[in-house]
Sequence to fold (435 residues):
Amino acid sequence: MTQKTVSQALFERAQAVIPGGVNSPVRSCRSVGASPFFVKRAAGCRLEDEDGRIYLDYVGSWGPLILGHAHPRVVQAVRRAATQGTSYGVPCRLEVELAEKVVSMVPSMDMVRMVNSGTEATMSAIRLARGYTGRSKIIKFDGCYHGHSDCLLVKGGSGLATLGIPGSPGVPPEVVAHTLSLPYNDLASVEAAMKAHGEKVACIIVEPVAGNMGTVIPKPEFLPGLRRLCDTYGSLLIFDEVITGFRLAPGGAQERFGVRPDLTCLGKIIGGGLPVGAYGGRRDIMEKVAPLGDVYQAGTLSGNPLAMTAGLAMLEELGAPGIYESLRTKGERLEAGLREAARIADVPVTINRIESMGTAFFTDKEVLDFASALQADTATYAIFYREMLTRGVYIAPSQFESFFVSTAHEKEDLDRTAEAALESLRVVKMTQRRR
Ligand SMILES: *Cc1c(COP(=O)(O)O)cnc(C)c1O
Fold:
């Protein structure tokens, strides 16, 4: 019998006291037939596990770590802030500074409210949209993820509009009865749904680039079309930029694509690796939020000084010249390396990438929506994941997630990743032959 690794031992202990041994399901690595490694420390683009193994990290805590792990400026700022107290429950200067920074960076945001997670941001934005419009229905898209609040947990259904089918036990049908889920990138189906229900639709919420079914890029007409339909029917357009905010450009997807939502949800990068979310947008809408208005939303730890400090350090660092160009170049280099590896190994792969995020889908078809993403061969992805991990490269333990490149990934890291991908894809090819 082989000796148990420290990670394996920790996972056993974890499973006794934490459901599935993890505090967020995908970390269990079930969908790739593996068990998780436990991280001891991280720096730059590298993770070190409890057994001393080092991995090149393309998950980046699921998006926030655009500057890599333990960025010296962020660490130093948090360290200094901690000595001044870790929570006040009373306003502090840092909240004002981060709010001013966010509003100055994101084109459509006049005002912003800080919360503690992306889930809180989207949940609050939906409540606000409903309160502002006095309407109940919301439209979302199949395969988009907006956190785990009840009314957004609607599984993508096929067909034109799937009305109110909860995606999880514990969500009563009445709670999602007002949620319509439509195919991503399919403007005609949104048009039809708005024609039927438009006067009752409070908002359309969308990931302007989808990251949670793997990366799916909007067709050129999709986001402008949503903007137009919202204007026609008096509904609010909400961009869930929890991933894309500060990732695709300083002003997120709305800057990148030149489409202005009414409300924007932020998370991940805005916290610099600490728990922060935010929602904001047009002044007249945000003035409906308590205590100015009657739409209630609150948070004991919201605006937490440590989290604000980390976020500020992060956003200030992202203002350095050339950061986004460099991130794009790195994204391009990784994509090119993966494409070449797939070509040489002769394994069909469709790569969707924009700037520093992307996904390699194991399919030869275009991936434009959830239905086409689901055609990807997850069994092959599982093999690829395990082979990459063996070679010291950590990619998301699910086909339906995105990779994230950080400023800490150097050319050599990206090239080593491409080499690991080629070796891994050769193994994939052999197992495909055998099947
Ligand atoms: C991660 C994510 C969320 C949820 O954020 P949490 O901080 O995990 O609650 C919401 N929307 C999108 C687009 C996300 O990627």
User: Anything to note?
Assistant: The chain is about 40% helix and 15% strand. The two ends are 29 Å apart (CA to CA). The mean pLDDT is 95.
